[in-house]
Specification:
alpha+beta; 3 strands
Length: 128
């Protein structure tokens, strides 16, 4: 059996793949992946409501210095406590030089939206 190196294959044999863009559903899935420990560790506080500083501190502790998750056929997710940053892509990428999909206040806002976390300092009553 002979093998042909990629250097000797004709140009038409090369397959170029463009990165699969993230959908809104992918972004929510990446967020849930990055915040899995947050939900387990802070279930009581999530139910009771958290102020922005409490939520930021809890997310930062949950993310730690840096973490991530990936595997065959799954999204590559990287997260970082300082700055509350989350990166996600369908291909393995480096977070250096890549813009996060969530950072700072956007991460806090997404946590409130995804997990229904009330802010006890809000004076607005729930409309539902």
């Amino acid at each position: 059996m002979t093998r042909t190196s990629t250097a000797t294959r004709p140009a038409s044999a090369a397959v170029e793949r463009s990165p699969r863009p993230l959908t809104n559903e992918d972004r929510v899935t990446a967020f849930r992946t990055a915040t899995g420990s947050f939900v387990a560790w802070y279930a009581g506080q999530i139910e009771a409501g958290m102020t922005d500083p409490e939520l930021e501190a809890a997310l930062e502790i949950s993310f730690g210095i840096m973490g991530g998750s990936c595997g065959p056929g799954t999204m590559h997710v990287t997260y970082q406590g300082p700055g509350l940053r989350i990166w996600a892509a369908w291909e393995i990428t480096s977070h250096y030089g890549t813009r996060p999909i969530f950072a700072g206040h956007a991460t806090v806002a997404m946590a409130r939206e995804v997990y229904g976390i009330a802010n006890p300092q809000d004076r607005q009553l729930r409309l539902v």
